[in-house]
Write a structure and sequence with these properties.
By secondary structure, the chain is of the alpha/beta class. The protein is built from 8 helices and 9 strands. Bound molecules: pyridoxal-5'-phosphate. Pyridoxal-5'-phosphate binds next to β1, β2 and α7.
Length: 259
């Protein structure tokens, strides 16, 4: 009898430095015991310092890829990162609407850590309209949360995002300062939870992707959202503790560490 693993459909961009994007997703999902089904939404021109450009993949190709996957392979969870264009978001929404409900983790990627843009206003509006309402968890970092929620504090911004219909918002604290960072989970039912994690210091290229992909692997494996978040957080902490110096910019989490 052949082995089977949970399958995570993941849509995100290709980062040729191997730090963020689809490579981070594939490595994290694999390390956490699932089989990734990767769809590349955009090809970035990027190194460990910054994004220098990006080209979207044709949305009709992505539509065909999704249909072929569905016809062949059971899907247990979905994770999105950089989406390339509003049209790709619309294609994914139509795909999700035409099948059974799946746990969806949306990492609302706006900028690379070096400041390079990975989403324009039309893409952000499409994510809010089409993906946020279906999401089990959104995983914005601090700046993304304030930009998307339009408020000056994180809690108010998270509550605004919950109005889109998502079940929870995990505000990640990696971009702050101090010896500890706090990840805060805001749920649609009003319950809040937070985790204080030791800050290793510095910023790591692809840590947000790694966390969101890790959560999607936990959900695909049948963990509840809290367990999935905790498992992903400790995986990210270990990957960062053993981070790799790849180029002159940010180190890259080593996602080959044992979970
Ligand atoms: N997705 C892609 C394709 C990227 O290039 C980047 C950043 O460079 C990200 C996502 C976000 O990366 P991080 O996990 O560092 O937030």
């Amino acid at each position: 009898m052949l082995k089977q693993k949970p399958h995570v459909l993941v849509l995100s961009g290709l980062d040729p430095s191997g730090g963020a994007g689809i490579q981070a997703d594939i490595q994290a999902i694999t390390a956490l015991g699932c089989h990734p089904l990767p769809i590349v939404t955009c090809l970035t021109e990027q190194d460990t310092v910054n994004v220098h450009g990006a080209e979207g993949v044709d949305a009709t190709l992505i539509e065909r890829q999704l249909m072929h996957l569905r016809a062949d392979i059971p899907i247990h969870a979905v994770k999105t990162g950089a989406m390339g264009s509003a049209t790709v978001v619309e294609v994914l929404r139509a795909f999700l609407d035409s099948g059974p409900a799946l746990p969806l983790v949306v990492d609302p990627v706006i900028k690379a850590a070096g400041g390079g843009e990975l989403a324009d206003e039309a893409l952000l509006a499409a994510m809010k309209e089409h993906l946020f309402p279906l999401a089990q968890t959104l995983t914005p970092n601090g700046p993304e949360l304030l930009q998307l929620g339009g408020a000056t504090d994180e809690a108010a911004s998270a509550r605004t995002l919950l109005e889109t219909g998502c079940a929870s918002v995990l505000a990640t604290g990696g971009h702050g300062t101090g010896s500890h960072l706090e990840n805060r989970l805001f749920r649609a039912d009003g319950r809040e939870q937070s985790w204080q994690l030791e800050r290793v210091g510095g910023e790591y290229h692809g840590s947000g992707c790694t966390l969101a992909a890790g959560i999607s692997a936990g959900l695909a494996s049948g963990h509840d959202p809290t367990q999935a978040i905790e498992q992903a957080q400790s995986f990210v902490a270990r990957a960062i503790a053993g981070a790799l110096q790849v180029g002159a910019g940010q180190p890259v989490p080593d996602r080959s560490v044992r979970p």
